[in-house]
Amino acid sequence: MATITDVICPFCGTLCDDIEVVVNGSKIESARHACKIGNSKFLSINDIPRPIKPLIRENGASREASIDEAIAKAAEILSNSKRALLFGWSSTSCEATAVGIEIAEEIGGLIDGTTTVCHGPTVMAVQYVGLPSVTLGEIKNRADLVIYWGANPMHAHPRHLSRYSIFPRGYFRERGQQDRELIVVDVRKTDTAKIANHFIQVEFGKDYELLSALRMIVNGGELEEEEVAGVPKEKIIELADKMMNCQFGILFFGMGLTMSPGKHRNIDNAISLVKNLNRHTKFSIMPMRGHWNVTGFGEVMTWQTGYPFAVDFSRGYARYNPGETSANDVLQREEVDAVLVVASDPVAHFPRKSVAHLARVPMITIAPHHSLTTELSEIFIPSSMVGIEEEGTAYRMDTVPLFTRKVIDPPQGVLSDVEILKRILEKIREMR
Amino acid sequence: MSELVLKNGIVYDPINNVNGEKMDILVKDGKIVEKLNGNAKTIDCSGKIVMPGGIEIHSHMAGGKVNGGRLFQPEDHVRFAMPKTKVTRSGTGFSTPTTFLTGYLYSKMGYTTGMTAAMPPLMARHTHEELKDIPMIDKGAYCLTDGNWFIMKYLKNGEIEKCAAYVSWLLKATKGYVVKITNPCGTEAWGWGKNCRSLDDPAPYFDITPRELVKGLVEVNEILKLPHSVHLHANNCGRLGNFVTTLETFKVPNGTKPAAKRQIMHATHIQFHSYGGDTWHNFESKADEIAKAVNSNKNIVIDTGTVTLDHTTTMTADGPLEYYLQSLTHLKWMNRNVEMETSPGITPFIYSRKMPTASIQWAIGLELSLLIKDPWQVLMTTDHPNAGPFIRYPRIIAWLMSRKYREETASKVHKVIYDRSTIDGIDREYSFYDIAIVTRAGEAKALGLSDRKGHLGVGADADIAVYDINPSEIDPSRDYKEIEKKFSSAAYTIKDGEILVKNGEIVQTRYGRTLWVNSKVDGELEKEVMKDIEYNFKRYYSVNLANYPVREEVLTRSTEVTRSASV
After folding, report:
1. Cβ of B123 and A163 within 8 Å?
2. Which sequence spans correspond to the domains of chain A?
């Protein structure tokens, strides 16, 4: 039995880096400090029957194939495609994304990540107004006002509150929770709302109005309405006062804001509110990024192509126009003639119309487990789990980079995403 | 490896006092050698200028804040795109080019080394990941130390040796090359939305003044005997009347002796620190005052941060400055305070020719270059991309070499420059020798790299730039457009003896070295400091100590420069 310390949990964007994994031979006994979800991800390597051999579907039936054959066939599909889509990336390493970008560039395809269906609107809003933010340690050490808006970390990012925002003792907040105030804005009383000092219930789809009302007060205006977005005037004024009078405030927002009506306009308004608040005090804003390395995908894409998602290489250089070059749009316009999915499950999560096209075109999936997407794929190449069976770089939701560790060997014969992608790229180059 | 002869070139090599002499340069195994035995490949350089490869001393080319600048400006990337070729990757971006493109663009101008100007320690891995993707040049990163809690506490308590041991550890942990100070103490104040507006305005709570911090870090730098001096972005950057603070800052290191044959302080992008006036209506250049101070102080080296009159991006660890700028322009704004360390910010900026302010800023950058007498003390930068993108270097060279070109540009900017700067009265024109100093030799010397870079003497790295300019035929003062064109597109860029660029086109790509300082201090002292580090990491950082240091594997051709401290 060996205990490996300082392990980084490859589940959510919180990217806890204090996990102690106890390894016993080829099994993981426990993952100390990890939350329930993180723990089950580590332990999942024990009990799930892992796919080892690549599968190729021919004439409606799947058969096992050698890794060489699967890679050759995948390369052939991609190389012959006129407009391939390379999708996924949020649950693999930055190193894998980098190879993915190189393949997309080589074949003149499109590359997009799960950002497109989560914080894509956030990115677009940031491109309008910017993003006054901080690292999570700043919040731990300084924040006296924490707001979660349209986010429920108790369920989605279970250790977010205890590591960074409400519970920890920080340098200037020695008493931890007692030195801070927690406000939750949401459409329903979530478990996070239950522990908040104040809960503000906003009518569904009216976040934009509430944000506008707050901005009006923060900028010195008078609120004339008795109620906005289902929230009484006094409560809005009280919230605005708290925001203006704290020493160091932080607004975390989740998909309750990005994916409800208004989308990127909601985020634009939220960021603008925080900008306005900086005339009064120190205030910051941060998206609660979901998958553990969805931030890293955006970072690598940005430094290599100039754009964070939805990139089209058909002209030999990167073009970006969400709505035109984003995954669901190219799928629903039926433009795509081949798909490579890495570390993601679009069949389970995309709209029906997109999935219908996924079913029509040859799809190659690289992932550690079976999923709806692997079931619809022509080729399924099982890969090792990054952060448990492979090392690799990841970026936390506040863009702090962490190098994830390997704690156990992958099953024999199973390659890493990076290795598989590199071999596909090599094959594609041979074919050209 | 290959052998190469650069035949009959007109060589400018200021470190070896070679001023436009016709000579052959011999290359073997990536180094410059005295003689060759085998059948060397010959490049005919007759009628062409041969210089050491260009060295960038201050450019925001890689790291979190650069990527933030890229991310929030798709408009910057639509402006400039390069498709992939047989040898190069594709790239986009005008003021914030993508990584591959950054390497290619430097190489096309004959540059072979570049330093990225600001690396927050916690984000060091990000900076190195991007540097890993910058091909063609050797590179290094400056480690930010301005709002660092350890450093502030040690210096406040007078524990200079412990502070030195901590900085030594920090450089190793982040694989940094230089101690960089940006808005000393002000970046900590920005944690509370505040700033430090003078050298004696202390950081809240930590109660240490910028003066004490800078003085302390200068001493630490010399205790550690680092190759470069401290690299300082002074307080009040970009503010009205800030020349007073700048002049005072120059005096702070007085009394401390440099541990090597170089300056005691490198004061960066001084254009942004040479402002007079107390409203934007009487904003004026104080470059003459700054030049006077530099002319009488041999221990200071500055770089200019010359404004190129472009639509660009400003990005700096000086968070309060970026907030201030966006409050003037109302453009988008990104901020990213880094726990216990520093506080970067980003906002786009348009240096419009019609604007009095931008026009004066343009004049200041050139005034500094022309009024400071010793070119070794005034290196050429645009503080990329803050005052303009680095691809404008050839234009700045042309401005410096031609009074006529300056007059032509002056006639197109706001006429306020005739009253509130001295640019119109300056006759000086740079020679090719001066250009070689301010773009490579001076940088090598200031960075402590002149044993291997910035010159063409025997034993130096074979990093060479050849430009298709015949000094005996061209009159730079009149043919300034030709000068700009030729410096934009090197006839040859040779890196480690390999031809990477020919006639302005990239013919092959290579990855350069990553330079970092392996600083050694007394083992007992280091142990003691490690205890403090462990204690503070457990309590106040959001990452574990074990996950903080950057592993050497991420560096391309990791090259350590070892320095043993005097403690």
Report:
1. no
2. 2-43, 51-117+292-431, 120-287
